[in-house]
């Protein structure tokens, strides 16, 4: 099954490359770079029962986009600064249990949206549609470079701290007793998630970026495999979603983010069906 | 303070208050020696888990002192010397994508060290820990698909995989059925007698632990009796506990109600 999936993905990618000019492929490469590590971060948030985190970070990042509209020179940096600040604030709320985890996420999500609307409307502007739903045309070669750089950084972090991250996700207290720097691990994960979200919203938009991180991981979880295999399959599902989503966008002129999310959900349904068939 | 080879844990007048004036633990003193099977009993809310958290260095005593291997628990250099099975060990997400072996491998983290990868030797160690608890055949099963008793043994294997000198277990059989519970305690007994491992077990179930431990400490036990502590000890109430050559360690608190005796001190 694994081989067939790989063959299908490769063929799909080759067909797409053959039919489209190279310059228009930048967004696809950006999407693939994202698909290689976003689901890994997503998988960690899902198994920590923190699935709404990416969505929350995305909605708060919209505030950064809004601020960027008003303070033009900061347009590039604002989303990243706001996303990072939100990550630290969420981790603070979680660590000190001021409010329950899901309430913290639900609150910040709406507050982020509310603040963006208030700021933008007060300045007499509109939130650009591409910030909400994303646009492939908005993806530049600079974005691709940043996505690859973040991907490499994420790879280094995961190689260095893999076992610590898995342990703190499974059993935080025992990990702490065994001397795992749980807080640092949580913070690193939040920082990576916030940067990923801030980078990805240009292509897939604030409203859809969360699903890109969460759905492939949930699809892989349906297979009932080991931790390593689950991570591997979440990346495979993510690559399929980006590849097929890109093809749909080019062929039908459909929205990229929306297509990716729908394909990812299709993967989830198939994975769920396969689990039922195998009775795992 | 030089490390006393026989004292694994030493508590001197350790108290804990969540807020000033709200004292949960008051002047607890005891000593766990190498090779002990040390039981701590007490009702819900008696501060058993808080005491464990202080021993583990997750909480600091408000006053008094606790030492583990002669060191301050929160600054303990080598945390691999402790194996810990928490009360919440079985509360993990049943869908968590990890096999029994992957969970046991987590126990090798401290020994492997930060920034180091898990080696084949770690894997071998984890497999032998699984074998020790009788679950070698289940190494590749998803841990969420095992029964409660089996999951509990996986957690023991995880603690064992780190080669600890001391194992601390907080209500280890919570949510495990009676048969599995008996098996579980004989596994602990085996670790204590055959592997010379020092064990500290916290539980509210005196019936079963009384047969296993060699020292028993009762935390904030307000057991109503009309006689003296001596009579109480010789009486029926603790007969079960005493059956397994248990040494009950009575403690006198500075203030206690008539007829109530508090036990948490070595005599």
Strand residue content of chain B? 15-25%
Query: What is the domain total for the residues of chain A?
Result: 1
**Secondary-structure class of chain B:** alpha/beta
In the CATH hierarchy, the architecture of chain A is Orthogonal Bundle
**Which range best describes the helical content of chain A: under 10%, 10-25%, 25-40%, 40-55%, 55-70% or over 70%?**
over 70%
Over all CA atoms, what is the radius of gyration of chain A?
19 Å
- What is the helical fraction of chain B, as a range of percent? 25-40%
Shape of chain B: globular
Shape summary of chain A = globular
Structural class of chain A, by secondary structure, is: mainly alpha
Total strand segments of chain B: 11
Number of helices of chain B: 9
- Unreliable stretches of chain B (pLDDT < 50, length at least 5) are 222-229, 235-247, 250-267
Question: H/E series of chain B, N to C?
Answer: EEEHEEHHHHEHEHEEHHEE
Overall pLDDT score of chain B: 78
Low-confidence stretches of chain A: none
Biggest sheet details of chain B = 6 strands, parallel
The CATH superfamily of chain A bears the name ABC transporter involved in vitamin B12 uptake, BtuC
The radius of gyration computed from the alpha-carbon positions of chain B, rounded to a whole number of angstroms, is 19 Å
SSE ordering of chain A: HHHHHHHHHHHH
Can you lay out the helices and strands and say which pair or pack?
The complex is a heterodimer of chains A (280) and B (267).
Chain A lengths: L1 H18 L6 H22 L5 H18 L7 H18 L5 H22 L6 H5 L7 H30 L1 H6 L4 H23 L4 H13 L5 H26 L3 H23 L2
Helix pairs in contact in A: 1-11, 2-7, 2-9, 2-10, 2-11, 3-4, 3-5, 3-9, 3-10, 4-5, 4-9, 7-9, 10-11, 10-12, 11-12
Chain B lengths: L6 E13 L2 E12 L3 E5 L6 H9 L6 E6 L13 E4 L14 H7 L2 H4 L7 H13 L15 H14 L4 E5 L7 H17 L3 E6 L2 H4 L5 E4 L4 E2 L4 H6 L4 H5 L3 E2 L11 E2 L6
Parallel strand pairs in B: 3-7, 3-8, 5-6, 6-7, 8-10
Antiparallel strand pairs in B: 1-2, 1-4, 9-11
Helix pairs in contact in B: 2-4, 2-5, 4-5
